[in-house]
Write a structure and sequence with these properties.
The chain has one domain. It is 39% helix and 12% strand. It is built from 8 helices and 5 strands. It has a 5-stranded mixed sheet. It is globular and about 45 Å long.
């Protein structure tokens, strides 16, 4: 039985919400991933993700190289876990690469959102060393954002699709469960001060429960 079905009966009660398959125990912001605008645009597929990368690289006029990170549903689509996603979630330290983002959205009829896991969950130690290279086009290198950080945000958010993706992060070998548990447990109480909707004890309990049930099924 998939973890997202089992979790409803066993997950610690951390937030009020309906007892449904889409119940989120820590109630992450409802607008990530997903948006109203995305519902009237075309879905992100692996082909459209490639088109998006080509558009980003082609529109970039900077003189230096830059990196663009694929996050969330884009990683799932590119990895073959899903056929499509509503939005393309991206991040870059160099905002110039998104100078023509409105034009790209219109040309591709695609909703593009800027997000990374640290917008919603504390940072994990060593994230900068765990991004996964995809390809380089022109001066832009494209990477999957640290899968360990992505997994933490998925487990904390806790909706059905998030938990299916979370299982795939582990079963694909992108994330080692022992290392993931260790990294999460090293997050300090101080780091949680930036995330008042979360508590360290609750996050650790949810992560431990997810890993325990995942491991019991494999």
């Amino acid at each position: 039985m998939p973890y997202w079905r089992r979790q409803r009966e066993t997950w610690p009660t951390l937030a009020m919400g309906p007892a449904s398959e889409d119940w989120c125990p820590l109630r992450m912001p409802a607008d990530w991933p997903g948006s109203i605008e995305g519902l009237v645009r075309r879905s992100l597929t692996v082909e459209r993700l490639d088109d998006l990368m080509q558009e980003i690289a082609g529109s970039y006029g900077g003189n230096r190289t830059a990196r663009v990170f694929i996050v969330g549903g884009g990683t799932a689509v590119h990895s073959g876990w899903r056929t499509s996603n509503i939005d393309a979630h991206l991040f870059s330290h160099d905002e110039d690469v998104f100078a023509d983002v409105q034009g790209m959205k219109e040309r591709l009829e695609l909703n593009i959102e800027f997000a990374r896991p640290e917008n919603f969950v504390p940072a994990l130690e060593g994230t900068e060393n765990r991004h996964l290279f995809i390809r380089t086009i022109g001066k832009i290198s494209f990477l999957h954002y640290d899968p360990y950080a992505q997994l933490l945000s998925k487990v904390v958010r806790g909706f059905r699709q998030d938990l299916l993706d979370a299982e795939n992060f582990l079963s694909s070998g992108m994330v080692d469960p022992v290392r993931f548990r260790s990294l999460v447990h090293t997050i300090s109480e101080t780091q949680f001060r930036k995330y008042p909707a979360l508590s360290r004890d609750a996050v650790l309990a949810v992560v431990d429960d997810f890993l325990r049930q995942y491991e019991s099924g494999h």
